[in-house]
Amino acid sequence: MAFVADYKGAIVVEARNYGYTGSFNNPKAWCLHTPEEPPDDVPSTPYYFANTNVNASTHYFVSFLGLVFQMVPERHGAYGNAVQGKPYPNWANSAINLNLQTLSIEIEGYAATIHQTMVRGGSQWRALVNLMADRCIELRMPVERTIGHYDVSIYRSDPGALNIPLLILDVQAKIKQLTAPPPPPPPPVQEVKEMILVKTSNDNRVFAFDGATFSHIPGGAFAEAAWGHDWATKVQTIPHANKKDPRHPYGDAKLPVFYPRGSASE
Predict the structure, then answer these.
(1) Residue 37 lies in domain
(2) CA atoms of 124 and 251, how far apart (whole Å)
């Protein structure tokens, strides 16, 4: 039974040969390859690894069309990054097989022309960036530790002309985007309630009535501006010299008061 992909959305085509008995992979870096197959709509490399008798495999394959295949579970070592005639990278343990310290990716295309067929921002480039960013976050693996096959083997030239420093920059940007804190929620919408404005008939003072209390709106210009608002119900009061409303701040001064419609004091 095929394994479950580590990267969500990856198409699983299990490689025939991979893994080390009693040892598991502890990924610390990426090693990039080109399989030297035409960049087209026929991704043949995953099926080659699934059927070959050769001890060769890779964890991931990114097709020309932007599809991601997974051939080896990340917890197992793929057969692709053996150190041959070169020193181990400074982040690696030279006493441990590099296949047990890396994740490998085959990028559909040729070493000599990969910079032309996998253009920055294209489907294949974006798929590669998204894959690397996702796994770097999940595995806490620094994307700066990204090497080409040629960095560990004197017999390999892939991934050739691929601009790895530029790729790293785009993966860093994607990681930053994916790990950025969510934006703060928008401020709560203040419920606008209709305000009843009351103007005294004798001296044109303006009061606001919210259904419970009266509040004086000081300042002539400001009061007149408030009085002109569309959202306000304006009531020109009638003096009631002998009536007092305890809710009116000037009720005991026998100023004109306004009794809400339907109230007991109306």
Answers:
(1) 11-179
(2) 78
Residue 261 counted as domain residue: no
Residue 222 and residue 154 in one domain: no
Q: Are residues 131 and 214 in the same domain?
A: no
Instruction: Report the pLDDT value the prediction gives residue 239, as an integer from 0 to 100.
Output: 44
- The CATH number that applies at residue 98 is 3.40.80.10
SS (HEC) of the chain: CCCCCCCCCCEECCCCCCCECCECCCCCEEEEECCCCCCCCCCCHHHHHHHCCCCCCCCEEECCCCCEEECCCCCCCCCCCCCECCCCCCCCCCCCCHHHCEEEEEECCCCCCHHHHCCCCCHHHHHHHHHHHHHHHHHCCCCCCEEEHHHCECCCCCCCCCCHHHHHHHHHHHHHHHHCCCCCCCCCCCCCCCEEEEECCCCCCEEEECCCCEEEECCHHHHHHHHCCCCEEEEECCCCCCCCCCCCCCHHHCCCCCCCCCCCCC
Both 32 and 129 in a single domain? yes
Read off the pTM. 0.72
Q: What is the pLDDT of residues 130-157, one digit of tens each?
A: 999 999 999 999 999 999 999 999 999 9
> Per the domain annotation, does 231 fall within a domain?
yes
Separation between Cα atoms, residue 213 and residue 221, nearest integer Å: 23
Structural domains in the chain (count): 2
State the Cα–Cα distance between residues 55 and 131, nearest whole angstrom.
25
In order of 5, 98, 152, 160, the CA distances from 90 in angstroms are: 30, 12, 12, 22
Token pair in block for residue 138 = 């999940």
Distance CA 145, CA 196 (A): 68
